[in-house]
Amino acid sequence: MKKRVLALGTAACLVIGALSGCAFTGGTGGTTAGESSQSAGASESVSDKTTAPAAGDQVLSVYANAEIKTLVQWAASDSQSSMVNNNAFEGLLRLDEKNEAQPALAKSYDVSDDKLTYTFHLRDGLQWSDGTPLTASDFVFSWLKQMSADATNGYSFIMTDYIVNGIEYNEGKVSAEEVGVKAVDDKTFQVTIKAPTPYFARLTVLCQFFPLNEAYVTSKGDQYGLSADNMIYCGPYTITSYDPAVGATLKKNDKYWDAANVKIENAQVRVMKDASAALNAYLANELSQVALDSSNVAAYQNNPEFKSESEFRTEYLQFSLSNPVMKNKNIRKAVSAAIDRDTLAKVILADGSSSSNGLVAEGMYGDGSKTFRELNGNLCPFNAEEAKKYWEEGCKELGETPKLTLLVRDDSVTKAVATYIQSELNKNLGIDITIDTKTVQARNELMDNDNYMFASTAWGADYDDAMTYLDLWTNGTPYRGSYQNENYNKLISDAKVETDDAKRLNMLLQAEKLLVDEDVIVAPLYHRGSATLTKSNVKGLVNHPFGPDVEFKYAYFE
User: Fold this and answer.
1) Beta strands in 400-541 (DSSP E)
2) Confidence (pTM)
């Protein structure tokens, strides 16, 4: 089951100074709530406890709005760790400037006719930062580690859901030799999956799929990853110093296979928990990029350094079908149709977020020429008149005018959105709703225990495919509204084994329509966005909308 905390998609929120590790909230993977809280506190100088780059060098400086809890790959699940690791390590494939997965440590790969066996061919001369050869065995060790009971990051599913005997290995029922990963030779890594999965290769851009050197990791024991000196690297940068509460400094990795195309020599990630302190640091030329909250967007939106982008993350209302009121479809349809999502995104949030036309986020892969969202259109349009009709019909069916209570988490953005929904339902349905504000943990417990009417929650994409959203509603859990629909489940199960891409896509399009438009199990609200300022001399700094967040590799100073 996907972990509700981080999306590699992955979900503590990074506010970037010049990287996803700083500019975006959200993370790597799919978080059910994708919640990251931004706590107030004085900013700290990374140079207090970390080694500063040589004087005179230009430094790409970004910030994270929460601690970088760990760099241990099989334990890390937050966006901050993902951002740092993504720049110090690399997988078989890597996202480029257009968010497309391109050959990285693997120069190419082949897929068998039955689409179940992937054979990755590694580049010649790959090395770890200490000069040790990087081989296919490093992937076998790393992937087995992530699939084993040793993994504490909640992301074993990202492999075990797909790889032959992955679940069985995690449960201790089979040996490592029986799992569908093997080194054919030093330069050939082969993976066997359970069913055709069109996006499988793209998963390898995620940190969980990065290689690890078994001999080195074993030699460090429980000290591995606790400091920069207890790690070796295979990505564009090496980490020269690291303190969870302060940040990390990075230096270009001369052993990296594509070092010639890495332009910036030095980078740093500063932990700064206070957003206003981060903005002040940016204005003082101490950060390369900063994220703006909605209160600052208006003041800077005409600045040439301003940019807003949408992430692959959707905030939505989850209705509980176990609740006697929300079991009524007309009531659900009334609530969804009564909310003006355009005003919510453009006026209330005003941070780069966009109104939702469906559950699957804007920009996610469709058929190669159109995105999934473009193909499926607007499944939850605002229509005040229709909303009123649905409400009246629902009340007639229930025999009463029900009282509604909306459960929300306690961060400032969610509370503002809840207040807006409250006003919309009052204006368009003529009702007053109660807002029940809880901590993230308390909110989750209420939803898990089926003790709610409807709630605000979110999911961030783990990978660039609609399945990362749609397969969540197949198990009938209370958190997902106790939704049980055989037709829906069949569409998803069939799509998971369909080898014809066009047929598979059609199944997923139908599934989203069933979930959002016909059954109205969820009411999508907005796709989360970010508004940033980036120094005019910084070019090529890429903020990915999913997966590994921010890329230093393509950045350069003009």
Assistant:
1) 405-409, 434-438, 454-460, 522-534, 538-539
2) 0.74
For 31, residues 6+ apart whose C-beta sits below 8 A from its C-beta are: 3, 4, 5, 6, 7, 9, 10, 11, 458, 459, 460
Angle between helices 501-513 and 486-497 (to 10 degrees): 160
> What is the Cα–Cα distance from 115 to 197, expressed in whole angstroms?
8
Low-confidence residues of the chain: pLDDT under 70: 1-57, 547-548
Nearest-angstrom CA–CA distance, 445 and 466: 27
Helix (H) or strand (E) holding 94: strand 93-95
Structure tokens at 209: 């799929």
| Distance separating alpha carbons of residues 319 and 334, to the nearest angstrom | 12
Strand 59-64 vs strand 266-271: parallel, antiparallel, or unpaired? Answer: parallel
pLDDT of residue 505: 96
How far apart are alpha carbons 525 and 135 in whole angstroms? 46
In whole angstroms, give the CA distance from residue 344 to residue 354. 9
Distance from chain centroid for Cα 87: 17
535/281 Cα distance (integer angstroms): 12
Torsion-angle region of 487 (φ positive above 0: left; ψ -120 to 50: alpha; else: beta): alpha
Length in residues, the chain: 558
- For CA atoms 336, 354, 35, 77, give the dihedral sign: positive
Q: Please enumerate in sequence order all residues whose Cβ is within 8 A of that of 88, keeping only pairs 6 or more positions apart, or say none.
A: 71, 231, 233, 235, 236, 237, 238, 239, 250, 253
62 contacts 55 by C-beta, under 8 angstroms: no
Query: Cα angle vertex 8, ends 254, 31, to 5°?
Result: 165
Residues 187-223 have pLDDT tens digits of 999 999 999 888 899 999 999 999 999 999 999 999 9
**pLDDT tens across 133-183, in order?**
999 999 999 999 999 999 998 889 889 989 999 999 999 999 999 999 999
Q: Which pLDDT score, from 0 to 100, does residue 548 have?
A: 67
Q: In angstroms, rounded to a whole number, what is the distance separating the alpha carbons of residues 159 and 162?
A: 6
Q: Which of 228, 215, 200 is nearest to 72 (CA)?
A: 228
pLDDT digit string (tens) for 423-464? 999 999 999 999 999 987 899 899 999 999 999 999 888 788
Strand partners, 316: 457, 524
25-51 b/e (C-beta count within 10 Å ≥ 16 → b): bbbbbbbbbbbbbbeeeebbebeeebe
b/e string for 381-411 if b means 16 or more Cβ within 10 A? ebbeeebbebbebbbeeeeeebebebbbbeb
